[in-house]
Write a structure and sequence with these properties.
The complex is a heterodimer of chains A (about 170) and B (about 375).
Chain A: H1 15-19, H2 40-50, E1 54-58, E2 65-66, E3 72-73, E4 78-79, E5 82-86, E6 89-100, E7 106-118, E8 126-130, E9 144-149, E10 162-167
Chain B: E1 5-12, H1 23-38, E2 47-51, H2 63-66, E3 78-81, H3 87-100, E4 106-114, H4 123-126, H5 142-157, H6 161-175, H7 189-194, E5 197-200, E6 202-203, E7 212-221, H8 222-228, E8 233-242, H9 256-269, H10 274-277, E9 280-282, H11 288-297, H12 306-311, H13 328-331, H14 336-351, E10 366-373, E11 378-385
Parallel strand pairs in B: 2-3, 2-4, 9-10
Antiparallel strand pairs in B: 1-7, 1-8, 4-7, 5-6, 8-11, 10-11
The chains are: A mainly beta (about 170), B alpha/beta (about 375).
Amino acid sequence: MSQKITSYQGREITPDEVKEGKYLDIVYKFEPKYSWAAGVAISRFLTELKDGKIVARKCYKCERILVPPRMYCEQCYRPTDEWVQVKDTGTVNTFSISHVGTDARRLKTPILVAVVDIDGASPGMGILHNLGEVERSKISVGMKVQAVWKGSEERQGAITDIRYFKPI
Amino acid sequence: MKRRVAIVGAGITLFRRRMLETPKELSFEASKMALDSAGLTLKDIQSVVSGSAPDAFDGVHMKGEYYLDGMGAIGKPHERVYVGGGTGVFTPIGGWWNVASGLYDTCLCVAEEKMSPLHPHPQYAFWSIFDQILERPLGTTLLWIFSLEMRRYMHKYGIKEEEIAEVAVKNKGNAVDHPSAQLGAKITVDDVMRSEPICEPVKRLDVSPPSDGAAAVILASEKVAKKLTDQPVWLDGVGWTLDSTHWTNRDLAYPEYVEKAAKMAYKMAGIKNPRKEIDVAEPYDPFDYKELHHLEGLQLAGKGEAPKMTVDGVTQRDGDLPVCPSGGLLGVGNPIAAAGMMKICEIFWQLRGEAGKRQVKKDARTGLAQAWGDLMQVGTVAVMRS
């Protein structure tokens, strides 16, 4: 704010006014439902997860092996060429211990979350997932981990077919 | 041939967790203040560019169409620009296109945000920026990307949480002198370290608050600006780039997209050595480590060297490179788009020597404002000169 301006506009609704309901508001709950087609690349990726496998796409031009897979290489801007099975092991690129959920409310049990660089894909090709079977104080960047899969009858073609990654 | 563009007026409302004013009313107040400060009325304005972050906060679709009368945009060429958290600096970049291109001589640029309508917490809206098939089923919250990025940054360069906390201490302290500020406070590194862990390593005091607020600037062509004021502030360089949403495939320790945006702006402004030529900077600081990350991306610090610069006091208001003299998002508040525009306003006032108690010690002639956003993929940069 410029020192030349001496008054500024805006009326705060104070926390007390919120608590006591002393302001006029109109409440509305919006409950839409969506059905997303998973797409060409991710449909195949999810189908393979159901079979307990992680797959990637390879671009012959830059020779990168891409996870999550995509049907086009965004760097070479051409179609990718081949499906490649990669490993279900990887390295923790980074991690966090989350004490809050999606709506910012405090969780009773923290979620362990990590970016896991997948073995067999190009360097730095990570996916977001959870960690499990590990003490919080023992998690470290560079830790080797492996996917813990749901039982084959439980798997439904979703990222959650992998329960979490555990240290190996 | 592009024309030189000046900023000739600026305005801002209070930033608070919850404001009584509607988006239209907030926009009106900030715009009116900007017009008054430039000695203009709405009749003098030829086009309007607005910025606001996701419609999901307001629950109002077509927000750009909803709020436009508060922005004085009825019957005028109006566009809403949007790049997530990068929107606040992208809004005057949109205005720059209008004036530099020769289409218009004056353009009102307004950024507005009300995050408070969404319950139980504005954070909830951010859930829907994640990939709907591969990421949302894991229970995502926006804080994850920050905590994951902060951890990677610390790991790569051996940075300590205490060094990062120095940014929160500085910015919240600077905000004490900003009349609009929501969270100005004199705190210590120890206060930050002992604040509640939210998403480790991120703690309560590492984070900016959700806010309501608006800010605006007036752009003018060189011919018009010189008639209006003896102190135009020139918008001499603009830059913006985006990376993909495949954020888990990216080097999280270094924001390359910010580097690219900065280099575009520096080239346009004829800046060859940013660390020597930029006198004052307002990089985007929704989290304390982001200020450091961005200083490095902006080439104002070497890779991994911004923490030491901060600890050494270089980035204080009386330092060699004052950073976030406003108090930043950490102190003034973070009404997304309005927060980026607040940084443009701050550099405008700093370069005119009008920042009062916040005025930096050195004779500041060249300044920079930067914003960042979406899935860690956007850099928007503006270089300004007095």
